[in-house]
Amino acid sequence: MAHVTRIKAGDKKSDEPKKASTSKDVKEAVKIAKNIVKEEKKTIKKEKKPLPMPLRIITAPFRWIFKPFAALGRYIRDSWREIRQVRWPNRKATWKLVGAIFIYSAFFIILVMLLDALFNFIFSKIIG
User: Where are the domains of the chain?
Assistant: First the structure.
């Protein structure tokens, strides 16, 4: 059986293989697997029996009216399921990412300002 190493964000010892799984790790893995199976069962739709022909004829005009609302409801439900599966970063990681964005933005602001000043100087010498 292959050894699987689980790497978490911010884990400094991710290169070292972990020791044999403890019963706590196994129980946690089983719990996660059960949750996945439960979610998959929820997503499997039951087969619907078609309506009898007279009811289909009567409800046909209403179906196209309510179809967009049903699609919107499905979209919101599926989006909510996806959002629940996201692993959000903690506060420390979030601030690190925000700092990286500020540094990246400041670097390119300064670069664009320097290039603008350089081209302004060159064109003023050529034209003026």
Answer: 51-86, 88-128
SS (H, E, C) the chain: CCCCCCCCCCCCCCCCCCCCCCHHHHHHHHHHHHHHHHHHHHHCCCCCCCCCHHHHHHHHHHHHHHHHHHHHHHHHHHHHHHHHCCCCCCHHHHHHHHHHHHHHHHHHHHHHHHHHHHHHHHHHHHHC
Q: How confident is the model at residue 22 (pLDDT cuts 50, 70, 90)?
A: confident
Whole-angstrom distance, CA of residue 106 vs CA of residue 113: 11
Range of weakest confidence among 16-25, 108-117, 118-127: 16-25
Of 3, 27, 36, 30, which is closest to residue 17 (Cα–Cα)? 3
| pLDDT tens by residue, 31-77 | 888 888 777 777 665 566 787 888 888 888 888 888 888 899 999 99
